[in-house]
Amino acid sequence: MSAAVAAAPALSVEDVSVELGGRLVLQQARLSVDKGELVGLLGPNGAGKTTLLRTVLGLLRPVGGRVAVEGRTAKPGRTALGYVPQRHEFAWEFPICVADVVMTGLTGRLGLFRRPGAAEWEAVADALERVRMSDLADRPVGQLSGGQRQRVLVARALALRPSLLLLDEPFTGLDMPTQDLLSALFVDLAREGRAVLMTTHDLLGALDACDRVALLNRSIVAVGTPDRLALDPAPWMSAFGVGPESALLRVLKATAR
Amino acid sequence: MTPVEFFTDLFNPELAFLPKALAVAVMSSIICGVVGCYVVLRGMAFIGDAVAHAVFPGLAVAFVLGGSLVIGGTIAGVITAVLVAVFSQNRRLKEDSIIGIFFVAAFALGVVIISRAPGYAGSLQQFLFGSITGIPDSDLYVVGITGLAVLAVVFLLHKELVAISLDRESARALGVKVFWLDLVLYVLVTLAVVISVQTIGNILVLALLITPASTARLLTDRLSVMMVLAPLIGGASALVGLYVSWSWDFPTGGTIVLVLTVAFLLGWFLGPRHGLVGRLRRGRGPLIDDTGALAPADGAAVLAGAHANVPEPVDGGRA
Ligand SMILES: Nc1ncnc2c1ncn2[C@@H]1O[C@H](COP(=O)(O)OP(=O)(O)OP(=O)(O)O)[C@@H](O)[C@H]1O
Ligand SMILES: [Mg+2]
């Protein structure tokens, strides 16, 4: 797909191992995402998808290996990373409007004691425009639908104008039209020159929209374009721990044609 | 007693303690109202309760040694807040268990310490249920300055406190120092509690934190409005409560809390958006909260819990 122009990829995860609660949750995971590329991270529950994203954000320190964002080790607050957590991580009952939530994406950049100025509000307006939520800017977030909430979280991540966007299960609990709308948005965001990495349990959606797909189960089992991966059932069986007769492989076979 | 008589009493030099009590009660309510907004929105009521109990040994030590109650309470409360913040980083035990362990222990320590002092029962009662007499002039300044400092910190760190309340992980990823801000918030809660304990009492102070902020939440969907309404409701309730308690010779702390509760119930029934009346008028069921806003039942349960915690030693035991 889109070729890496710059020397360093937007994100490179180099043989990263991560321990949680004394257990090795990621083992020598290796993955890179280029600018302009939408990569889907697939794997069963507990595979370590969220853990991988949190490691890239610098929230977890790997016991081995290295994460580099545009060639440099990522540090919380230092690197312009956009993070879209799972929707249930956010306190939706908080009395705050959409635009103010998006502004919280700039909290770290602004630093202590500084108040947002014209430039910041412009960034917020741009981000809202980007996810087509401008007309709901003054709405309390508690009154939004699931799809609108997801777009607010994306806008909050975009406020920083990041070159790398990480999305954790953005499609969970959304209907098909909303999923379509969002994956079109993610494709656009990638085409504009960002690197986008998203975890998802929606295999079909990922195979349809992503430029490349990575299968994770403690380590990266396989990476490739959807066309190629869909033809090869072996890595899917090993990543998801399913047999040759499973529904997953039947679905996969159906998409391969 | 008419409000006018109350007003003249306020300026009666024989009753010099009355305006002082009013000033302290109103300032406490304002500060608790502002800080309480975070407590309510983050569901930290339990921490407010913990800190309220935890300041007790500090008050007891200060009382026994004849030092400043505000300073003694602050030290004890801050120590507990730090312990809770540090120990709750360990995810193996849930935060509320940790808090439960520390605040009951601190309270027990306070009871033991104060039992060493002469006039044990009277002073214990005063701590637990508040008193409007015997506020030294110096406390007026301590409360005023502490209150201003608390409000200044809230104002300066508002952006960060909101960010960590919305979504801790993302805030951390943005480089916001979540642990330190938690600690600051716990200390702010402690200070708000400590300056209020004198008039409201140890047991009832939780109401000052929770009730005005919860009432304000029922009336608005905007945080900025909520943070103005809550101290207004708190301050007005303190004024009305003191007037009622002075007129009918009711205990001050209890009366103020009851006035706050009446204000909460009014908000619950008459609130423009979430109120029962508004809902019925719009033809919707009263119990389903469309925005997922603070279910008022929570606040009520918290308060019920606080009252259930009232210990018995006031007149029983070794007095
Ligand atoms: N704080 C923690 N302490 C110990 N183990 C953890 C912790 N968080 C996650 N784990 C473990 O790490 C593994 C990976 O978890 P992770 O949340 O990354 O999985 P995931 O791929 O995101 O799963 P899901 O699809 O369910 O979201 C799981 O086995 C989980 O039990
Ligand atoms: Mg996950």
TrEMBL record, chain B:
Membrane-spanning intervals of the chain: 21-41, 61-86, 98-120, 140-157, 178-197, 203-220, 227-246, 252-271
What keywords are assigned to this protein? Membrane, Transmembrane, Transmembrane helix, Transport
UniProt-listed CDD domains? TM_ABC_iron-siderophores_like (cd06550)
Q: Work out whether the entry's keyword set contains Transport.
A: yes
Highest taxon, organism lineage = Bacteria
Where does the UniProt annotation locate this protein? Answer: Cell membrane; Membrane
Chief location bin: membrane
Q: Which family does it belong to?
A: Belongs to the ABC-3 integral membrane protein family.
Protein name per UniProt: Anchored repeat-type ABC transporter permease subunit
* Species of provenance: Motilibacter deserti
